[in-house]
Amino acid sequence: MPTAMTASTANEGLEGIVVAQTTLSDVDGEAGRLVVRGRRIEELAGRVPFEEMARLLWEGLAPLAGQPADSSAAPSATDLARALGLARTAAYARVAPLLAAAAALPAIAALRLGLASLRPGTAAGAASPPDHLLATAAVPVFASAFARHRRGLPPLPPDPTLGHAADLLRMLRGEPASAAEVSALDAYLVTVAEHGMNASTFTARVVASTRAGVLPAVIAALCALEGPLHGGAPGPVLDMLDALAGPEDAGAWIAAELAAGRRLMGFGHRIYRVRDPRADVLKEQVAGLRQGAAAGIAHPRGTTRPGDDARPAPPPGEDAGAAMPGSLGARDPGSRLALAERVEREALAALATLRPGRRLDTNVEFYTAVLLDALRIDRDLFTSIFAAGRVAGWTAHVFEQERTSRLIRPQSEYVGPRPTPTPT
Ligand code: ACO
User: Fold this and answer.
1) Residues lining ligand 1, judged by CB closer than 6 Å?
2) Does 269 qualify as catalytic in the annotation?
3) Each residue's pLDDT tens digit, 251-300
4) Which of 27, 73, 237, 336 could be bridged to 266 by S-S, CB 3.0 to 4.6 A?
5) What residue ranges define each of the domains in the chain, with the CATH number in brackets?
6) 223 exposed, middle or buried (CB, 10 Å; 0-12, 13-18, 19+)?
C-alpha cells in the first residue's frame, strides 16, 4: 500500500554523482567538448578507422588479440583489424541456429539473443577470441544477418579482409559500399564509441562490478541503450522528419508535440549545456556523403583499408545494388539534410521558449538519424548500429571496472508502509 511521499533525499537521476575514475573519456558539458584518451573527438572521427578507436580504448586495459602471446610490441590497428575480422567469422558460426528465433524479435532483442549465445569459449574453433573482441565483432554480424533474414534474404558471412565498417555495410546490403559510405560509417562508429558515464555504460559497469564478465555486461548495456531517452532516439528522429510534408511544416509540428507534453527526440542532454560536439561531426559526414553522391566521388578523407571499396560479384541469387525490401532506395542526403536543418532551427527556438532557464540543444542522435538514413540503413537497426560503435567503449569500461573490484551498490530510501508494531 503506497504511503504519502515525504521530502526525498534521493537523487534519482544520480546527477553529479561521480561513480568511477576513468582514463577513457572526458565529457565537458559546459564547453561542449568530448575527449577520448586525450584526443578530441574531432581529431578522431573521420580521421581514424573504428579499429584504431577500439585499439585506443582497449590499450592498457584489455589483452589485444592478433598478436603472438609473447609479443611485447604494442598492437597496431592493422593487427586489431585482422583479429576483429577473424572474430566476426567466429561469431558468424553462431548465426544459422538462431535465425528462426531471431526472426520473431525486434532487431535489438535479436541482437541480445545473438550475444547471449556467445557464452565464453563457445565461439567456433578451439582458440576463441577474447570476449571483448568477440562481442565487438558479433554486433554487426548478428545485426546484419538477422536484418537480412527478417527480409527474406540469406545472411552473408563476414569478409575478414575488410575493415569493420566496410564489412558491416557489405553484410547488410549484399554488395560492397562505396568508399565514401564506408568512411561515413567509420566516422559514425568512432564518434559514438565512448562517452563517459552514460546510462548504458553505467549499466555495463554495474554488471561488471558483480563479476559477471564481459558478455553479460554488454547484453545488459544493450538493454539500457534501447530506450528512447538514450540510444533509441534516432529512429523516432527519423519518424519526426517523415511526419513532415515539408520544411514549412516543422514549426507547427514541433509546437504541437511540445504542447502535447512530448519530448523532441534528438534534443537535450544530461551533461551538455551546449551543443553536443558529436552533432556537428556527424552533420559534416552527411554533408560529405551528399557531396560525394553529387560528384560521384569517394570521400576525400579516406579512412578505408585497402580493398574496402572493391566490388566483387554478388552472391548467387543476389541482385547487386538491389534494395532490401522496404529499406533501400535512393535517399537524397541533400534534401534530408535541408529538412533536418530547418527542423533543428525550429526545435531549438521552441525549446528555448519552453525552457528559458535550461538550455536544450541538439544531441548526437539528431544527425545520427540523418546519417544512418543516408547510408540506407533501416531505422529499426539504428540502435544496433549505435551498439556496433559503443560496444568498444562498454568493454573498455568493463575492464576498468573489474580493476576496481568494488561492487556498485547504492542505497534507496524506503517510503513504503512500516510493519505494525508487534504487541508486547
Ligand atoms: N524535448 C522537450 N523537453 C525536454 C527535452 C526534449 N528533448 N529534453 C528535456 N526536456 C525537458 C524535460 O522534460 C525537463 O522538464 P521537467 O523539468 O518539466 O521535467 C527539462 O527539459 C529539463 O530536462 P533535463 O534535466 O535537462 O534533461 P534530463 O537530463 O532529465 O534528460 C534527456 C536528458 C533524457 C536526453 C532529455 O533531454 C530527452 O529526453 N531528450 C530527448 C530524447 C533524446 O534525444 N535522447 C538521446 C540522448 S543522447 C544519448 O543518449 C546518446
Assistant:
1) 198, 228-231, 233, 263-270, 355, 358, 360, 363-365
2) yes
3) 999 999 999 999 999 999 999 999 999 999 999 999 999 886 766 544 33
4) 237
5) 38-63+78-306+329-404 (1.10.580.10)
6) middle
